[in-house]
Amino acid sequence: MTEPNPSRPERLDERIERIERTENPNLLNRELSWLEFNARVLREAEDPDNPLLERLKFIAIFDSNLDEFFMKRVGGLKQQLASNVRELGPDSGGTPRQQLAAINAAVRPLVARQRRLLKDELLPALRQHGLEIVPWSELKASERRHLAQEFDRRMFPILTPLAVDPAHPFPFISNISLSLGVAIRLPGDDAPRFARIKAPHILPRWVQVPELRDRALRFVPVEDVIAHHLDRLFPGTEIVECRPFRVTRNADVQRNEETAEDLLEAIQEELQERRFATVVRLEAAKGMSRWMSDFLGEELEVGEQEIFEVEGPLALKDLMSLAASVPLPSLRYRPWAPVVPPRFHVDIGDEAEIFGAIAAGDILVHHPYDSFASSTQRFIEAAVVDPAVLAIKQTLYRTSADSPNMQALIRAAEARKQIAVTVEIKARFDEAANIEWAEALEKVGAHVCYGIVGLKTHAKIALVVRQEKDALRCYTHIATGNYNPETAKLYTDLGLFSCDEVLAQDVAQLFNMLTGFVYQPQFQKLLVAPISMRRRFLEMIAREVEHQQAGRGGRIVAKMNALDDRQIIDALYDASAAGVEIDLIVRGICRLSPGLPGRSETIRVISIVGRYLEHARIFCFGNGGSPEYYLGSGDWMSRNLDARVEAAVPVEDPKLKEEVQAILDLQLADNCKAWDMQSDGTYVQRQPAAGEEPRSSQELLMQRALERAGRASTPPLP
Length: 718
Known about the structure:
Strand content: 15-25%
Helix content: 25-40%
Radius of gyration: 27 Å
Oligomer: single chain
Structural class: alpha/beta
Largest sheet: 10 strands, mixed
Number of helices: 20
Number of strands: 27
């Protein structure tokens, strides 16, 4: 990179211009960085210190992650390849063809490792505890007879065998559905014919074998049960072969919002198009004949690079439901009951006191250590029933199917409170659910909008307007995570409650920007993407360089899900070259290379993968001894800074600053679940040194939550 003129300090706009016009050889490949993250997830499945059923869940998470990766990332690259895109720019990490080859080379060993772990270690270990997933061949005759009866009663009427011949074209294979490919030979035929049977999701994925005294928890994959009753589905034919298979389709369907007359209708059309999108992966059970593999490849239009032959059951993400349902509590983490934040200890019926607690000073909550139901959810529900509340405004990105938050907003609208909800109907894989909620809200008179054309609304904000004495008072909630009670049990997220007047004006302005027309919106405290967030972060990074050069010391600590934005990365490289000490806690993708001589020697990057999914975003700038802290919804990714509406809020209360710093300190000191990133993009897991006390940041945060609540200080252990 061309160095700036040393004769005078480089202005921020000059630095940005220099970054934009130069190539950066120090950006790691995004896709391979994500695969490194999924390898860390797989390591949790391999970790013998984790309970067995939790290890099984990590197997499922790894598989689910890979499904989404192929649908979104591989699908996008294949789309570019089909469009004859040869180059993606100097920072892309190679041509689409090169990246697909690198992905293929990285994925296959990971999948093989996952399958070996399940077959050789986890299933034998679970068997010792009375839980078995067994093939048909290991069943007793009495068990087979029982399952034959189950097949006739519960499966046979549902299943639909589909033949392929001149009168029956090759059937549509839906995305990530489980199918059986069957080769049959009719009397008088020489060559086999192909038929497909779909294992519909309404059937149990794991069919329980009747209980015996010594084997109470035995399950057979549903495809095994179907495969051994093909004579009922194809009577009078010879079954030559039967092998399960599964397809993954591209979910990166492009739309043009600017030309869409109705965005809601455009998204509904996209969902329909996605069902018929091109196949990007074919998973086939080990042992599938070359004849069947070639036939499926030709019909689905996939080559050898897209075909993955795997051993054992397909769709291992379905192990999640099994691991969650079997009655073996000793094989799980000790249950964690989130604590009620002390200032939210309000009796039922005294909902107005919640607003009094917030009026007394800002409140910070940290889920799942702090109860979501007793804080965030109750804040909205209190606003619904409080007669002094006149209006509620909220963003919705992802939520649960039976969301109490959305049900509360519907009740509020029915009670004729002013309700305004920005529903993001472009949230990938949640579009259908969000459309349903949007329509339900509109039916009861709520104001529903879909954000800004060309941008996803990813900000997590709520505004409650309350009549108090002779004036209106606004209460805000700004968070790093979604208004989703289910993910609040599994994701670590932060939320700030405040009735600061300036902050409330900013939040109100942001809602006006989302629902109406605001020309050049101005924000005093909030950092809002794509309006001010990028520039302000770059300014604060540059300020740390100035503090370092002035001898006051430069310091940056940032925690996020992913880091891929070129301008931010180059600003961090420049800051490190100036001597600024930088610690980054990046859960997933990180395209920055730490520890490069003369470039990033003062940058350290860790990733924490554990019981909970790290989802909070925290940004701390030393500011010459007067540190500034921000919590927000957006990562340092180009899509967050340029193509999404995001919000980050300053933490100004001194006690809350201490709490945020304590969270960062605990995570930086983690020596159990933290991984140190190397300059080449690989990771090394930390281990306690000889005689060193193990420090799992998530367990220690559970302990802190208990101590704040005045309960026992022993953290829940695996």
